[in-house]
Specification:
13% of the residues lie in helices and 27% in strands. The chain has one domain (13-155): Jelly Rolls. It has helices spanning 44-54, 144-150, 168-172, and strands at residues 11-13, 29-32, 58-63, 77-83, 85-90, 96-101, 105-108, 114-119, 124-129. The strands form two sheets. It has a six-stranded antiparallel β-sheet with strand order 1-2-7-4-9-3, covered by helices on one side. Strands 6-5-8 form a three-stranded antiparallel β-sheet, with no helix packed on it. The model has no long low-confidence stretch (mean pLDDT 96). It comes from Mesorhizobium hawassense. This is Cupin.
């Protein structure tokens, strides 16, 4: 599967706390546009599951992206677009709308808001998580204060979910 991964530098996006969505105080969200080639004769979701799993990101799922603003305060998340396309607002209501399409990967540090605004009928997303952290789903103002305490405690993963131990995530997400 490694032969299906292109070498490229990610786009980095930083989002401020908007009072509802805390976002991450230090680490940017990374987007790898078109990083994974998806041949027609292979299950595209399986490709993402294999790439993420080979780099220690597991507990994968296949679905879409929720149509409401939410974030995870106790774990990082990677989203691989296996099929279709979507407009997703990252960072909360004051964040940035990005069109993601098949072959793209977005890596969200804990606290990064995300919401599907629109999607093609065939949208299929593969999500996965690093081995550290605990899944949670935050979406209301009553969770904001606790999230601000939890987010900085989520450690940096040992591997980039796309490139492994030498990936750009490790440089972009410096400890400290």
């Amino acid at each position: 599967m490694a032969q299906l991964v292109k070498k490229l530098e990610p786009l980095a996006f930083r989002f401020a706390d908007d009072g509802l969505v805390p976002n991450h105080p230090r680490w940017p969200m990374l987007v790898y546009p078109g990083v994974v080639e998806l041949p027609d004769d292979v299950d595209p979701a399986a490709i993402f599951e294999n790439v993420f799993g080979a780099n220690g990101w597991g507990d994968s799922w296949r679905n879409g992206i929720y149509g409401f603003v939410h974030y995870h305060s106790r774990i990082h998340e990677v989203l691989g677009i296996a099929r279709g396309a979507a407009e997703v607002r990252f960072g909360g209501d004051k964040g940035k709308v990005i069109e993601v399409k098949a072959g793209d990967v977005a890596i969200l540090p804990a606290g990064t808001g995300h919401q599907r605004l629109s999607a093609s009928a065939d949208l299929l997303v593969v999500g996965a998580y690093p081995p550290i952290g605990t899944y949670d789903l935050c979406r209301g103002p009553e969770q904001h204060a606790e999230a601000l305490r939890a987010i900085p405690k989520v450690g940096r993963p040992d591997k980039d979910p796309v490139y492994g131990g030498g990936g750009p995530l490790l440089k972009a997400w410096q400890e400290g």
